[in-house]
């Protein structure tokens, strides 16, 4: 297998044994199968499941610290589109590795996910041995890329966009979402219970990180992540 996993020991256990894991996937049967797989491969104290992004974010907020040792994320959830869900979950939980599990496995999707902060990408049709290899690679600080993935010679514009979006803090990401809804600084300040001057500081930082000069340009950048890899109905 041509991947970052070849040097990983088959007996390596996940680095965060005795921690808990979070699976976010809206297919109950696949969720159950993933839960059994994780329980069999690693010493997680608990595997928690969520069927949408909002529920996953609530789990993270309700449980607080310590956060999960691992997050498994489906790309196609009912309340997010494209790679927006991955970017949001990375902002909410910065430390734990996030592994994307999807049936869509072309190079552009995998490259985009890695650029947006995923620690690995596992095709949904993979067997337990592949998940074991992925966890072993991540435990050693690597990034798992599936067999058949071909590295591009250089990152394209979309990958750069995703990397920039991933650099936003959780508060900056929330402010960008409100900007995308067409809200003014005063309205954003009211919604987030912060000073309008603080919003202006964040907006300036957001535009700097995204490499844009106007709010409308920032909205377009955010939309690129949301509409990238808009999956057809029935694909996950």
Note the quaternary state here.
single chain
**Within the largest sheet, what's the order of strands?**
2-1-3-4-5
Q: What about the largest sheet?
A: 5 strands, parallel
Total number of β-strand segments? Answer: 5
Share of β-strand residues: 5-15%
Mean pLDDT: 82
Distance between the termini: 24 Å
Secondary-structure element string: EHEHEHEHEHHHHHH
Radius of gyration: 18 Å
The number of helices is 10
Low-confidence stretches: 1-16, 229-236
Residue share in helix: 40-55%
Helix- and strand-based class? alpha/beta
Global outline:
globular
What does this structure look like?
The chain is α/β, with parallel strands linked by helices and 236 residues long. It has helices spanning 28-41, 53-63, 84-92, 107-115, 128-139, 157-166, 170-180, 185-192, 196-210, 215-227, and strands spanning 20-24, 46-50, 70-73, 98-102, 120-123. It has a five-stranded parallel β-sheet with strand order 2-1-3-4-5, sandwiched between helices. α4 links the parallel β4 and β5 (120-123). α6 packs across α10 (215-227). The longest helix is centred in the last third of the chain and has 15 residues, at 196-210. It is globular, with a radius of gyration of 18 Å. Mean pLDDT is 82; it is low at 1-16 and 229-236.
Question: Which helices and strands occur, and which strands form pairs?
Answer:
Layout: E1 20-24, H1 28-41, E2 46-50, H2 53-63, E3 70-73, H3 84-92, E4 98-102, H4 107-115, E5 120-123, H5 128-139, H6 157-166, H7 170-180, H8 185-192, H9 196-210, H10 215-227
Core attributes:
single chain; 236 residues; alpha/beta; 10 helices; 10% strand; disordered C terminus
